[in-house]
Amino acid sequence: MRAYREFLRTPSAPRLLGGTLLGRLPNGMGGLAIVLFVRAHGGGYTLAGALSALWVVALAAGQPVLGRAMDRYGQPRILLASALAAAAGFTALAVLGIDTLALTVAAVLVAGFCTPPLEAGLRALWPTVLPTPAQVRTAYSLDAAAQELIFTFGPLLVVVVAAVSKAVALIVTGLLGVAGTVIVASSHSSRRWRGAHRAADWAGPLRAPGLRVLVAVFACVGFALGALSVAAVTYADARHNSSASGLLLAVNSAGALFGGLLYGSGRHGRGDAGAFTLLLAGLAAGYLPLALAPALPFMIPLAFLSGLFLAPALAATFTLIDALAPQGTVTEAFAWLVTGMAGGAAAGAAAAGIMSDHTGVHGAFAGAGAGGLLALAIALVARSPLTKGSTAAPEPAARVSAPPRLPDRA
Question: What does pTM read for this prediction?
Answer without folding.
Answer: 0.82
